[in-house]
Amino acid sequence: MRKKIIAGNWKMNKDIHGTATLIQELRDRLKDFRGGAEIVVCPPFPSLVVAKTIIGDAPIRLGAQNMSHQDDGAYTGEVSASMLAAVGCTCVILGHSERRQYFKETNELVNAKVKKALAAGLTPIICVGETLEERESGVTDAIITTQVRGVLHELSSGEIEKVILAYEPVWAIGTGKNATPEQANDVHRHIRKLVSQMTSWNVAEKLVIQYGGSMNAQNAAVLLAQPDIDGGLIGGASLKSDAFMTIIQAAAEAVSQ
Predict the structure, then answer these.
(1) Domain boundaries, the chain
(2) pTM attached to this predicted model
């Protein structure tokens, strides 16, 4: 049984004060949580230290939303993998569709970041997904194949075992639209089969593949019940502790079934 991992991508929301409030709310709600799912929160860079301090011994992993493919140097505005690790991050989101769209990140750049993250002991949450035009053109599988092969290029089987992939249909992010559970699971199954061809079925079977297309408190249970959906990369719903906890509970219940 693969574990379920629920990660909250806060995007450019919550200053240090809002971060403190939300993390404390999550801590309070998690007092009665009996486990069954792993929890990750990914606040903006300025809030990472505050988040780590308040998380304390709560069952919450800290992640970042991006990082540089460079170790250090004259790269104004960038943050390195070692800096994230020093703060207490154990995860980092890489290749999110918004990074690809607004900052022109390529599969090659994401691949370079993945390698740096792994070298620093961070778990990369690597995003792949197609646009609405690509889905309507019937090339979803081809796009996903190109992206997965690109972001995992030259990684060993042992390294691939340490990553998380997140399928995020770009057309379903922040739009209120959503892939049906069957549509989402079909793409997850395609990713798993592709990784098995790149490595082995043993590696692919263990791979955690999250769904990142507007999962919320209302649809989480039915999505997480799908056999190849191993958690969620949550956007807007992660900014409210009650909605986020509902998704976490749905993941825990899916594991117990």
Answers:
(1) 5-256
(2) 0.97
Among 38, 105, 130, 168, the active-site one is 168
pLDDT at 179: 82
For residues 249 and 229, the answer to whether their CB atoms sit within 8 Å is no
Residue pair 224/232 in contact by the 8 Å Cβ criterion: yes
Q: Are 200 and 157 in contact (CB under 8 A)?
A: yes
Low-confidence spans in the chain with pLDDT less than 50: none
Per-residue tokens: 21: 């409030």
Where on the phi/psi map is residue 3: left (φ > 0), alpha (ψ -120 to 50), or beta?
beta
Angle at 145 between CA 144 and CA 151, to 5 degrees: 85
Catalytic-residue membership of 168: yes
Q: Note the Cα 122 to chain centre separation in Å.
A: 13
pLDDT score at 171: 84
Of 96, 98, 130, 188, the catalytic one is 96
Quick: pLDDT tens for 62-99. Answer: 999 999 999 999 999 999 999 999 999 999 999 999 99
CATH code given to domain 5-256: 3.20.20.70
Residue 40: helix, strand or coil by DSSP? strand
pLDDT at res. 172 = 80
